[in-house]
Amino acid sequence: MKYRMLALLLVGASRLEAAQTVTVSTAVDLQNAVAAANAHGGNTTIVLRDGTYTLSATLNVAAPDITITGQSEVRENVIVQGDAMSATAAIGNLIRVAANNFKVSNLTLQKSRWHLIQIAGEAGASAPVVSNVVFRDAYQQLLKVSVNQANYAMTADNGLVEKSLFEYTAGIGPEYYIGGVDLHGGKNWVIRDNTFRSIISPATAVSEFAIHVWDRSANALVEKNLIINCDRGIGFGLGVKGNTGGIIRNNMIYHAANDGQFADANIELATSPGTKVYNNSVYSVSGYPNSIEYRFAATTGVLIKNNLTNGLITSRDGATGAVGSNVTNAISSWFVNAGQGDLHLATNNPAVAGGQPVAGLIDDFDGDPRPQNGVDVGADQWVSQVRPHPNVRAQ
């Protein structure tokens, strides 16, 4: 037994010694550090000093436990970029991940022909963590989680995307085939505390969702996100490429008038049985009549409860579920600053204490505990003190 214990200790010590940290300050250094980490077998943290890193090739992460992070922890101070946001740009993806336990944090990613990060589910790249990252100005979806549709047994599962900003800085996207987080086939993802802005199609057709969970994905938790002026907000499933289960809660979604020509539903379940949608706040003056839609006969057993909207909650194409305790006639004066997407409750109104308990509902958009003198409808639990502007979590 003592020899076995000694062997285990030696193996653990070897792994500890194998871990390494590399600090870089140029794009060439960064590209070399990723290549060296792959050759080393992973287990490497690559720290980027403040500056701009213009890549000459995709960063291909092919070994597990590789971290890329900004040294200062100020995400605007470290910019990793391709050559252009264009269909003819030289850099397709900035980062492609084909291994487990990848982490990226504290930096800005911008300009690519395809995606800023692609997590390759077809390579089984599970348990990625994305935290405090700015995603902006990709020609397609900003963060893509892909899958081989001939082999759904291999997927990227158990991911976390948090405290990040997804945006198009021109206030509109370059084409319709854009989105924020585009999740194919993934199980048990958590997408929380992020901000999405201006994911808007300029022409041809509606853009993809700010957050899209579909194509045999299951059991995602999407909570406490702020979505402003995006063609579509949160979508689970899409036609025959459905989703199973999951929760959409405590999100704030705002869409201004005349901001894009293809505004659609703010929350949509489109072949997504067993999904729970509760305590979201939606205020849209885009002209599209439905705030929340659940669609298709395969969408069964859904729960849609305690949502605060100024538009309809609508079943389409035979979808069924339990719908109740929603308030669908909200007006702008109920909110701190609806025109800026701040959907904190401004005053005592019909949303206050108008909801019902839901299993799992323990706090609100800000992390304030629920209930407090009853369950409030929407993402915010009203309290008497003045509320801060949204993005209090430093988005």
- Multimerization status: single chain
> Main sheet, how many strands, which sense, barrel?
20 strands, parallel
- Chain-averaged pLDDT: 93
Instruction: Please count the helical segments.
Output: 2
Estimate nothing, just give the exact number of structural domains: 1
Overview of this protein structure:
Helices cover 8% and strands 34% of the residues. The protein is mainly beta and 395 residues long. The strands form four sheets. It has a 20-stranded parallel sheet that branches. It has a ten-stranded parallel sheet with strand order 4-7-9-11-14-17-21-25-28-31. A two-stranded parallel ribbon has the order 18-22. A hairpin with a 4-residue loop joins strand 33 and strand 34. The protein starts with a helix and ends in a 50-residue tail after the last strand.
Topology (SSEs and partners):
Layout: H1 2-18, E1 20-24, H2 27-40, E2 44-48, E3 51-54, E4 59-61, E5 66-70, E6 78-81, E7 95-97, E8 103-112, E9 117-120, E10 129-138, E11 143-146, E12 160-162, E13 165-167, E14 181-184, E15 190-192, E16 195-197, E17 211-214, E18 217-218, E19 221-223, E20 226-228, E21 234-236, E22 243-244, E23 247-249, E24 252-255, E25 267-270, E26 276-278, E27 281-284, E28 290-295, E29 302-305, E30 308-309, E31 312-316, E32 321-324, E33 335-337, E34 342-345
Parallel strand pairs: 1-2, 2-5, 3-6, 4-7, 5-8, 6-8, 7-9, 8-10, 9-11, 10-12, 10-13, 11-14, 12-15, 13-16, 14-17, 15-19, 16-20, 17-21, 18-22, 19-23, 20-24, 21-25, 23-26, 24-27, 25-28, 26-29, 27-30, 28-31, 29-32
Antiparallel strand pairs: 33-34
